[in-house]
Amino acid sequence: MKSVLVTGANGQFGKSIEKIAVNYPQLNFVFATSSELDITSIESIEKKLFNESFSYLINCAAYTDVENSEKEPEKAYKVNADGVKNLALICKKQHTVLIHVSTDYVFDGEKGAPYLVTDVTNPINVYGASKLKGEQHIEYLMDSYFIVRTSWLYSEFGKNFYKTIFQKAKEGANLSVIDDQIGSPTHAGNLAEYILNLIIDQSKSYGIHHFTDGEILSWYGFAEKILKENGLADKVQLEKAKNYRTFARRPKYSVLEKHI
Ligand SMILES: NC(=O)C1=CN([C@@H]2O[C@H](COP(=O)(O)OP(=O)(O)OC[C@H]3O[C@@H](n4cnc5c(N)ncnc54)[C@H](OP(=O)(O)O)[C@@H]3O)[C@@H](O)[C@H]2O)C=CC1
Ligand SMILES: Cc1cn([C@H]2C[C@H](O)[C@@H](COP(=O)(O)OP(=O)(O)O[C@H]3O[C@@H](C)C(=O)[C@@H](O)[C@H]3O)O2)c(=O)[nH]c1=O
């Protein structure tokens, strides 16, 4: 039976994997939260991997606060770059395949068409730059890895745009959402299935993958969809934001092309 270690297990994506893990009885999962395994500490990782060896490590650990990354870049780099380097070094030593999740924010959004896995990266915010650095450590250090870039994740778990809009709408707040950033919302459960199937299929298509749900929307369009899905469209007012102020710049068009 293949054993799979999941790091960052308490986050949105870690919990999404845990939810569907029961459908994969042929895999033996170990879920490690940030307090059980801190990816920024070599000792912490080695402690977890001392007695047990894993065929795969799915890294869900990350610093995902896009806004705060601008104010405290060292926090983003510590986890998203240095922490990922630690995982790459140890996985290589232990012959564990690393499956790492990355982001559409590694691109600048200026292409105006869906990004291919071969397209040049050029992040325009600290979060994206720190995630790219993590990717580069893996590519430099390892041969057997998957870097799966995805975008605009949402689910019942953790903090995400879907839940924020739904919550605000339920409270009856009027919503103002930008329509000049375009991307592909992706259900975290679908990404979890994609990744677990790479394992089940014993895929050797190592390298960078793009996975999204395929629909192309603005954040405004996504908000509209969320309201409709929950029967709230007639109950709250949704307007296109003119000046929604943020610290971080975000790519204008960060759709990921799934097919090579
Ligand atoms: N959310 C999104 O829209 C998107 C996310 N991604 C990528 O997907 C992955 C999963 O994201 P998501 O689940 O949404 O993010 P979350 O922020 O929900 O989860 C991240 C998890 O990482 C944990 N963590 C933080 N620092 C460490 C550390 N040093 N050691 C171990 N664990 C740590 C956090 O722990 P704690 O619970 O203690 O805070 C948290 O549980 C990330 O790599 C992210 O960059 C890619 C595209 C879109
Ligand atoms: C909540 C809200 C956001 N917005 C804007 C702000 C921002 O430009 C955009 C998205 O808002 P958020 O801050 O929720 O999204 P953001 O944190 O930028 O989401 C990103 O997270 C990281 C982790 C990723 O990897 C990306 O793929 C992407 O999902 O929508 C509004 O215009 N109105 C609103 O009411």
Question: Helices and strands in order, then pairings?
Answer:
Blueprint: E1 2-7, H1 12-20, E2 27-32, H2 42-50, E3 56-59, H3 66-71, H4 73-94, E4 97-103, H5 126-141, E5 145-150, E6 153-154, H6 161-170, E7 175-177, E8 182-183, E9 186-187, H7 188-200, E10 207-210, E11 217-218, H8 219-229, E12 238-240
Parallel strand pairs: 1-2, 1-3, 3-4, 4-5, 5-10, 6-9, 7-12
Antiparallel strand pairs: 8-11
CATH top level is Alpha Beta
Structural class designation: alpha/beta
Major sheet size, sense and barrel closure: 6 strands, parallel
- Relative strand content: 15-25%
Number of strands: 12
Helix coverage percent of residues? 25-40%
Briefly note the CATH topology name.
Answer: Rossmann fold
Q: How does this structure look, described?
A:
By secondary structure, the chain is α/β, with parallel strands linked by helices. The strands form 4 sheets. The protein has a 6-stranded parallel β-sheet with strand order 2-1-3-4-5-10, sandwiched between helices. A two-stranded parallel sheet has the order 6-9. A two-stranded parallel sheet has the order 7-12. The chain has a single domain (2-160, 186-215), classed as Rossmann fold. Strand 4 (97-103), helix 5 (126-141) and strand 5 (145-150) form a beta-alpha-beta unit. Helix 1 (12-20) crosses helix 7, helix 4 runs parallel beside helix 5 and helix 6 packs across helix 8. Helix content is 37%, strand content 18%. The model has no long low-confidence stretch (mean pLDDT 96). Bound molecules: NADPH dihydro-nicotinamide-adenine-dinucleotide phosphate and dtdp-4-keto-L-rhamnose.
